[in-house]
Each structure stands twice: as C-alpha cells, then as structure tokens.
Amino acid sequence: MSRWIFLGQVLIAGLGMTSPVNAQSTVYIPAILELSGAGAVSGTNFRDGMLLAIDEINAKGGILGKKIDTPLLDTQSDAGTSRAQVQKVLDNKPYVILGPVFSGSVLVDMLLTQQAEIPEIVGGEAAAITQKGNPYVFRTSFGQQFSMPKIANYMRDGIKANSVAVLWVNNDFGKGGRDTFIKEMNARNVKVVADISTESGQADFSADVVKLKGANADAIFVYLNEEESARFLREARKQGVNKPLIGETTLLGQKVIDLAGEAANGVRGHVGLTIDAPIPAVQDFAARFKTRFNYACDHNGIKGYTAVYFIKHVTEKIGKFDSKAFAEAAHGITISPKDEPGILMEATWDKNGDIDRISFLGEVVAGKQKIVETLPKLGK
Amino acid sequence: MTRLGGILVVLAAAAAVAAPFFLKPFGIFLLSTWAVLTIAVIGLNLTLGYAGQISLAQGAFVGIGAYTVALLTPAGVPFPLAFIAAGFLCFVIGWLLGYPALRVQHHYLAFVTLAFTTLVFLVLRNEEWLTNGIYGITGTARPNLLGWKTGGARDFYFLCLGTLALLSLATWWMLRSPWGRAFVALRENPVRALSLGLDTRRYTLMAFAIGSSLGGLAGALYAPLVQFIEPNSFSLGLSFNLLLMVIVGGSGNFFGPFVGTLIALLLPEWLRVTQGYYLIVYAAAVMVMMAFCPTGVLGLLERAVRALSRRKVTRAPALTGGAGP
Amino acid sequence: MASFIQLLVSGLATGAIYALIAVGFTLVWQTSQTINFAQGEFVMLPAFFVLAAMNSGAPFWLAAIIAIVLSALVLGILFKVVIVDPMLKYGVLPLVISTIALSLFLKESVKDFYSSQAQPFPTLVPAIDIHIFEAVVSTQSLAVLAVAIVTVGALKVLLDNTRLGRQMQATAQNATLARILGVPVRRMVLYTFLLNAVLVAVASILVSPIYLAKFTNGETLGIAAFIAAIIGGFNHVRGAILGGVILGVLDNLSAAYISSQYRGAFPLIILIVVILLRPQGLLGRVEERSV
Q: ipTM above 0.90?
C-alpha cells in the first residue's frame, strides 16, 4: 500500500525542515488544495497528478537545475482557510502557486495573489475566474464559458433538441455550469423546460426522475458529481427514461460507467479532459498514475499533472525564476507535446489565462466510452 | 480573580498588542481570526458555559452577522451602523428562536439549533437575489473609521483586538452585575435558583439571545477580515468548531474562550507537520483532551494551581496553630 | 398517480434505511445517555471493512461476517470502553464533543487510508427491477425493506419476550432502579452497544450497493438518523421505524411537488415542530423535564 510508504516519507520530511526558503537548490512552488471536506476528491486527485509530475521532473534534475519544493496546504474546502494559507505562502515568496480547485477559494485567493503579482495555476472551472482581469491566473482545463457553448452547439445541431431539461448539483460547480448552460440555451432559442437542483451526496433520485419524465424535454443535460451521476443514471434506467442523457466529461467518465453499470450505456456528451481520450500520451499517463496511486484519476488529476509541466515549460522558455516574466510569457503561449511531452495534448493559453485545446464528443457504448468526434481548438 | 491570574491577563494583553510588530502578514491574519472568533466563542460560552444550553446555532449567527455587513456596507451604510445592525438582528433572531426552543430538554435544543443552522444555510444558498447564493460575496471592504483606514493587516488586527477588548469588558461587567450573578446561580444549581424565585427561563433566554448577538458581531468583523463569504463557511462545521473552542478552553470560565480559540486555531497549524494526516491527529487529540480534561485547559490549570497551593499550605509548619485553609 | 406511487415506494425504501440506522441510535441513547454524533460514520465504516477483507482475497459472504465481527469489536466494545465509559461521568457535553471528533476521525481515516473515491460495492441480491402498481422498485430496495422489517420484528421479540430484553428495557427506563432490582446494568449497556454495532454493520452492507462506499456517506445518513429517531419518538424502537419512513417519503414528496432547492428544509422543519410541540416524538412516551 503506497499510502503507508507515503506516510513514512512524509513523517520523515516533516520532522526535517519546515522552512521552505531553504535555499539555492530548490524552487518554492506551494500547492493550496482541498485535501479534506467537500472538495477532498477533486483536491486529492489534483494533488496526486501534480505529485506524479513533480517526481518525474525532479528525477530528471528539476527545472533549470533546481528541484521543485511543493509543500501541501489544505484549505479544508473553506474559503477563509484558503485565504489564510495563501497569506502564509505569500509571506515566503513563492515562485508560482498551484491550486485551489474550488472556485470560491480561487476567487478569494486571487485577491491576494494578484496584489502580490504571483501567478496561480488553478483548478477552478467557474467562468468568473478569468473574467476579473487578473493577469496572474491560469488554468489547465476549460472554463465553463468554453465547455458549455460546445455542449450547447451539440444540443442544437447534433441532438436537434428544441427543449431541454437540466439537472444540476447545488454547489458552485453545478450552479455555475447550470447558469452558463441556460445562458447558452437561451442564446440558441432552445427552451429550458425543467430546471432541477439536487444536493451533493444525494442518494435518492426518484423524485428528480419523476419530474424529468413529467417535463418531457427533447434532451436532458446532467451536470452532477461522480457518484450522484451513477445513482441518477441507475434511477433513470429503472424508471424507463428514454430521452437522450447528455453530460459534460464526468457523466461519460469510466468511473461513472463502472459505478452505474448497464445504466450508463447510451449516455452522450462533451468530453474536455479525460483519461479515456484516444491519445497515447494520456493513456500512458493514466497507466502510470494507476500504478503509483492505485486508483484511476479523474480530470482533476490531469489538471494537476499538466499544470506542473506548464510551469516547467514556461520557466525554461524565459530561462529564469521570475514570476512576472512567467505571467507575461504564459499569455499566448502554445505548448505542444512534441516539445513538452508532459503537456499531453497541445494547448494554447489566451490573454485571460484560459486554455484552448481539442476536445471530444463521446458516447458510452457497451460499458466503454467511445469517441465519436474530435472538436478542434476554438482558436485555430 | 487571583493576583497571579491578574498578572497573566495583563501580560497576555501586552503580548496581543505587541505581537503584530513581530509577525508576518499570515501571523497577523491568524491573530485577527483569533480575535474575531473569540467574540463568537464568548457568546457561546454565555449560552453554554453559564446558562448550560447546548447551542449548535452559533455558526449560523456568525453567518447572519457576516452577510448583514457584507450586504449593507456596499449599499452605503457606514460600518459601525452595520456592525450594530448585525448584533441587533442576531439578538432578535436569537430571542425568537430561543423562546419556544428553550422549553425543551437540553439535548433537544441541540437538535433544534442544528436544524436552524442548516435552514439558515439553505436560505443563504438558495436566495440568490439577496445573498448571491452559492457564489458568495467577494471583496467586503475594510472600514474607514473617522479617517483611520483599516485596510492593512496590522490596522485591521487592532480593530478586531479593540472590538474584542470592548466586548469582553462589557461581558465581564454584565456578569458581575446582580443580573449576571443570576446566570451563575442558574448553572450551579438550577433547582435552588428556581426556589429562590429566579425566572430561569427568562435568564436562559437572555443568555441565549446575548450569546447569539455576540455571534453576529463576530460575523460582522469576519466579512471584512476574510473578504469573501459563502454559505458553506457558516454551516454546522463552524458551529461544531465554536463548541469545541468553548469546551477546550474551559466552559463557564470567563477566560476559557480566549484560550480555547487560540488552541483550536494553532493546533492545526502545529499539526501541519504531519501533512495530510493532521485532521486525524487533531480529532484524536480532541478525544484525548475530552477524556482527560473535560473542564478544558483552564479547568486543568485551575486544578493544578489549587493542588500546588494546597501543598504550600500543608508544607507550612503548624506555627499558626490549627492548620487548614 | 403513477408518479406519486413511485415516490411513495422509493421513499419507503429510503426510509427503511434511515429506520435501521435510527433504531441503534435510539437504543444507545436510551440506555446510556449517549448521543452518538458519529452514528453516520458507524454506518459508513463497516462497508470498508468488507472491501478491505475482499481485497485480501476473502469471498463476499466471509468478508461480510468479518465486517460484522469487526464492527462489534470496534464500534461496540472499543467505542464503549475507550470513549463512552471514561467520559460518561463528566456529563453529556464532553461525550457529544468526543463523538463529533470521532466522526471526523473515522471519516478522515477512511479517506486517507483507503480512498477518497467512491467504491462500487457488491450486492446481496441481484439488482432486478420489479414493477409494482405502476411503480418500479429495485430488488435491492426491497431487500432493505425486508431486512428492516425482520430486524425490527426480531428486536421486538428480543426486547419484549426474552428476559435479556426485558432487562435491557429496564436499564433504559431507569438504570438505578434496575440495578437495585438486580439487573446487571453495565452488562446490559454493553449489549446495547454491541447491538447497535451489529445493526449498523448490517445497514452498511445493505446500503452500500445503492449509496456506493464513500467516506462522506456518514454525513447525510447520520443527520437522517437523528431526525428519524426524534420524529418517531426516542423511547420506542417502533418510533425509529415510523420516523425513518416518514422522513424518506417526505423528502421525495417535497422534492417532487414543492421545491428541489429546499428539499432538505422540510425534514428539518418537521423536526423543529415535533420537538417543540411533541418532544417525545410521535410514538414516544413523555420524558419529564428535570428543570
């Protein structure tokens, strides 16, 4: 159980030095993540993907000859704690900060990091994050303002739906997605006939399925977290819902397919970041992750992994550890797996810190995710 | 209060005033958080330690206070007014909640307040038109009081510390008053208090309402401190944490909240050495603490001091003829 | 009409789960004044015992037995001896704090030492969907209902018709008097804890195929147990059943017909109303308030 080895390593490390500014041979890139509380699944996935990348890079000598030093700070999924941790970290003059994943924590941290002019590579998907005019925030996954239009187009052109129902989880992830989705639907003149919220951790979806059946929409957009997606799919299958179920990344993930079993077949949707993508580099990463951590990561793991390689590449490009120069160079940069295999898929960052990358339309067939179409980058 | 106790308090106060000059911004932020949360814990201590009522609603009151300030100050209401409004609103809500709720047995109050906290959370989350819902409210400004800009870490800390001092003094004075002594009587021996003609229900209700308003005042400072508030911060987790701070410090002890909050805030920081496992160690530490000193740290100290002074007395030779304290 | 029946049936199934968990909670409270805030995590944990045993190679039936035994040891005996006994003399509050800390301890331990991800869990009965009166219910839910009914029946027989059961009841109603009458009170209290541990283990094995084993499962289940126990009535096992069923059905009906955003509010409002107007619950006996 690698967890126990990890614990041993950590105890030894913890008993050693705790001061990060221990000098010349390391670069201080702290990670502020949700390691407990409601966001623990996302945060721990991001952390593990990140750790995999850091170990790989450090094994090859680090960035510009310096090993990466990444202490982990837990926000406890609370914005106030997150702010305290950012303050602590800023006192020690970091180069770049990784995380958090929860959009609320990201927004409050940004107030401080922007002032301190330290770049932050975050996992939050809320549209607002890149709309505040902060030149120091970057992400390695689509913001909801990019993923939702793709889904919306698919609804209108692929499914040819005139009316949709949306089922969403009532946290900032789900609400943000639902708000953006409805905006996109209205812009395309597709009627939203049912708007159903569910609770995080909910197990009984019979009431929601009953409402969905009553609404009789042409298609149903499902925006839940993983276990809830699985439970919903089972209930929908049980009650005989026969309208297309459309999702965004999570719904078509292998994790949900495993948990939902047969009920997942027929689900379709947009897939932004997934270990199921038909790209050898991604598959390879997924295998390495599984070997090291003993579970299959979700898209947060990929976010963490590519974030570290993003930092490495930009730093090597500018040739020094300069936070401001990093931010300037990162805007508009395109990184290809040819130059930086760790980036897994070619990506371009725009002036707001948002990422542009290919994505996929998929369908679940016979217990596996099948890629039906590859969508090009928006900016080509 | 003993002389030793008095000296300790003065020393601690001096340390609190001097500390920000030796600390980095993170340390100052932590101390400011300590000051703000202690206000809420003093309130809960009134309800729990003095009046003996298990309230799980304090987190909700902090939230109500925080949202009041976060919504009023951008609308142009000056901070001191919003501050008072927060306290007053929570007093009223506390009274209304306590009036029916305090009629039931103690453990039932825990569940009523638990339900109340969750209901408040649901309202804060769902009524987006008022509270901006799950997205929370960002950027509550730190107040500008008569020209004194409290935007900086150190300045805002002094605002929090000053408010804490003021409210502690007010609470101290209130407990010393004849009316406050009734609280203590309530806790020591409720049946006797009743027999002496005290309307226990009225006093308990007042303790609950005042405790709630202190929670609201703490929340009023919390909003400009963290500058981001969301419904999740004020749910059951915060109520449990505040309860923990009361117990760890010493429930019913006036200085308990100061000590308990400090320990509860610093312990996770000390334990961060254990990286991911600090919550497990923290939970275990709490359980151990409950088993060995349920009267809290101050209770333990009191026992220790008493044991020491007893030893001093018995050691003195029987010159006084007829020993005994 | 079909949807109403569907909601009712699904609600009954969910309610049966709550009821099972509430029963043990009630028993422990009655006999030892312990409000176990970790009850939800008690239901979450045995599923991981099963999974860990299966990872070591045990077949499901063996793993289940191992889990039940382990639960009895850890959540029954260890819990009582290490946490409850030392603190009971200090009053209710330190024990409440301890159980809250215990729930955090169990949750974080599972998250760190097993996994933060949801785990699929093998089912006792194959998952087939059955059509009853225009509603669809899965065999898993029926199994939960059946086991709940059998458990309650067995408990009733135990408590009313056996000497041991009557001794346990005596301990619950008035421990001092029971001791005077020669009832081995401490042993009875231990039995209650063991009973609770076995009940939660069974509930865990029944529930996890539907809920999927995850370290956060305890949060919602725990609160549901408290509400069910209080609504139904604390001093009656039957009260816990009624409370659970009401809770399950109410949640579904309010979510479907009133508001999905406030679905969590209705059980809480009922809780407050019941406590204020009829604190002994719907089926309970009145407890005298001391002061």
A: no
